[in-house]
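Look over both lines before class:
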Amino acid sequence: MEREMLDIVFALTRFRQYVLGRHVQVYTDHKPLIPIVQKAFDDVPPRLQRWLVALMPYDYSLEHVPGKEVFCTDALSRAPVASTDASPAESRSLHEYVGLVLEAAPVDIADIRCAAQDDPAVSKVIQRVLYDSWLDILPSEHPYHLVRDQLTVVDGILMFGGRFVIPEGLRTAIMILAREGHPGQEAFQDTLRQRVWWPGMTKDASTYVERCSECWRRRTNSPQELQPTEVVGVWRKLAVDIVSIEGHSILSIVDYGSRYPILKIMRSTTSASVINELDEVFPAFGLSKTLVSDNGPQFVSGEMSSFLSRLTITHVRSSPRYARSNGMVERPHRVLRERLSALKPHLPFQRRLNQMLFDIRCSRHRMLGTSPSEALFSRPLHTRVLAQLHPTVVNAEHQLKAKAEMSAQHDSRRGVRMLSELRPGTKVTVQDGYCDKSQSWSVVNQFGRQVGVTDGSRYLLRNRQHVREFVSPHRPDDSPPMSSANLSFSRHEVDLQRAPAQAAPRIGQTSVPEPDRTGTGQSARIGQSTAPGAVSACLPSVDLPPSSPCHNMPLSQPSSARESQPAPKEHTPAASGKHSFGNGAVTRSGHVKFTEKARLYADSLS
């Protein structure tokens, strides 16, 4: 190949006075020379770079023609010559150029040469390049055979274009040098591509970055895909939250079906105050089927649980430390602050709040295609601008289409990626901003996007966005096995001394202490005394469809009815060596007994 290129240099230099300053078509019978000339200058082998520099003054294009069709030049090329050795000046110039290339090596040239001799594949490829013999290649030589037209040997070192071919023994050292500043994966691969090459270098670089302990500890999950809310009837599902604006505590209520907002100013944020406000809302608008809230103390108290159970309202809690999971009421808070600040500040706060609420209730909602008031009351509110219109019905098909478009736009803009489901026993880390990222946790269960994890002494419930699969780059995980004897739970997560009358057990509730939804880290041991009948929910309550096997199941049964039922199946952790939490009750022996209700509840979730 080098001689073919030298022929072109000789021809254009010989007829310089005829071809300089005009376009020349050059024909060659060496087809591999065509793609090499079309490459970037840095990707061309060093020996050919010298000839390309010599051809820069000329305007030419190279075209391949079979040798049997080029009669004159083919015949002249067969004439005998006295000597094929290069002149001393050409040899000296060639060695000087090659020396400049070798000076740019990332490591010592002698180390590369010695490692190439110790590597069977690289040493064999060097011999094949020197003698242009590629017959009976071995499987380890196949990657080099695919790029044989770009391989050259310079001073005993194999070169891929203008890059050094690194033997296997020096590849790790090269990657360590390139990763001193901990660049990203793309920057790290680009740094390697500038000077070195070996088969599978891109894949090796990606694996090395993923196994870097420092980079892994600071890495976070990619954004999750947007999960649109289900289309429900008006006033069937409500979202509640407490927000503080301009020193006022406001109870915010939003209807999932109509997006109708309700704001109540409260003097205190206790459970009793929230219950009093809900007692005013429900008689005016009716009872809802589901109530969604965060894990604030006023919403997880026994008083609130008893109040909702008395009204047969299912209580669903969002993921702790993850406000987006209750976005139906969390997102309007930003609009609330912006609009209140835009209104006249000299007006009383209550008047500004009422004016803003009236505008929101009368404005057309993009998702519904109508105003929230018209969606809830089937009639628009009379305003000073618009006359009263005929009632319309909320179009569910329009909502589904709008939600799908919003979900696709969100996923495309945020670059989301589906997070895999975590199996029980998987080692993970919790990255919610409160837990130590380097601490290893073990997955206990997962329902929906909430994952229950334990470190042997605590049980936490976090959103899947905050849970990342643990990777140990240096040694296998040696975390102690989980034991029900030393497992403890946060005092803020569950009230083990809760009186029986505070909360009636619902479908999906068990006697397992409630997971940590606050992240305070205070705990109570399982061995502590528990009031009879104390029940805490380990799984969030959901709205079961009429077709669900749990829909018509009674929430509680008398003791005589329970005794007449067949004994539920037992899960024996002693046999499998694992403990399960979520859809069962812990027996006195520390085993977990799964009830049929909990099993049907889990099936309805899936």
